[in-house]
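@channel anyone free to eyeball this complex?
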Amino acid sequence: MSKIVSSRRISKSDVIISAAAALFREKGYRSSSMRELAENLGIEAPSLYNHIGSKAEILQEICSGIAFDFGDHIAALDNSEQEPRKKLDVLIRFHIKMMLHNYDRMFVANHEWRQLVEPHLTTFLQDRKSYEQRMVQIVKDGIIKKDFKASQPQVTVLTILSALRGLEFWHKYSNISNTKKLENSIVSQLLTGIVS
Amino acid sequence: MSKIVSSRRISKSDVIISAAAALFREKGYRSSSMRELAENLGIEAPSLYNHIGSKAEILQEICSGIAFDFGDHIAALDNSEQEPRKKLDVLIRFHIKMMLHNYDRMFVANHEWRQLVEPHLTTFLQDRKSYEQRMVQIVKDGIIKKDFKASQPQVTVLTILSALRGLEFWHKYSNISNTKKLENSIVSQLLTGIVS
DNA sequence: ACACTAAACTAATAAGCGTTAGTTTTTGAC
DNA sequence: GTCAAAAACTAACGCTTATTAGTTTAGTGT
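replying in thread with the prediction:
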């Protein structure tokens, strides 16, 4: 009978979605039950439906929210007049920051987007594809300017993105080595490699 | 009432596990039902239990099989007398080959190991940690021999491993660009970077 | 042809799922 | 304090799940 705490800035549905993101990250979307989610919030399962439409809707909110953040960021970056190398640098650091500060949502969006139902699955994949293509363009620009080695830009981008997706493993290390140092290591490795 | 086809070399449980790997990859472990798995094999769900112990057991077989293959490979590599740089090269190529030739099992092991029940979850994580540590040692050796730049070897290894885990995205491209070329691109990018 | 065994079948069970309906309690503005 | 709205509750439904029990069919060696 305890009520969900909320403020002017954070709606009750946001509180639910945050708790859901944490649960989905830990157990996976399909293995997480509405009953367990409710229990974590100190209420009964049916009470959730005063604030959210369905379990599927929660996942959609999480995934589309992340997609929006990344789309927003790369659009702003595209409009800026910077060198391709700098753009890639900024992009990588943004991924790292997102992973450190929005860990649960990032994890869920990365791992559970397959469970989205149409048309949201298609939308999500389109957004992803579009992001990827913008990134490919940055690499192509860099190759033309001789900033980057000639390569298969598609493969280059997918390699970087999958490396960044794995950042979730470093979430647990984020307290011991500070963010900036971690950022620098990863950016350096992805851009200039490890061979001396 | 059709029987599961099997040969002297491939047992019926292996046929089931292969079909399960394909299904689990497509829908995820929790979203895959024994009924659907049986249907894909042309039998009824309860008939599966003549060959396998449980759904959970199938996942265990998949995950421990992959863990074994990688453990085996890195142990053999450790015993070989090769330069760290060459070891890392071989390791990366092995990951790529495994992903291309054992796609379903690799995908499932990478994505669904969280659904393992104890004690298999702990075993799997220990195997993974051990593999990671062996790889860290290779990088450390390389740094001492000045093959590699000084860095945080742990971060270096985790970055490479997460990039390799994302190889599943390239499975669909594997028909257009041949394996060797893909291997070379990825090895080059991970070892020497993209900046010219 | 016969018997043994492997492997399929049908029927059913208990548990868990997301969700709805209907009701009661709590909260906040006047 | 009163009243409306928000948000909690209990009870239950319909469905799916993995799995078991018991039975029948099919394949194999003699």
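from a first look: The helical segments of chain B are 12-27, 34-41, 55-79, 84-101, 103-112, 120-144, 153-165, 179-192.
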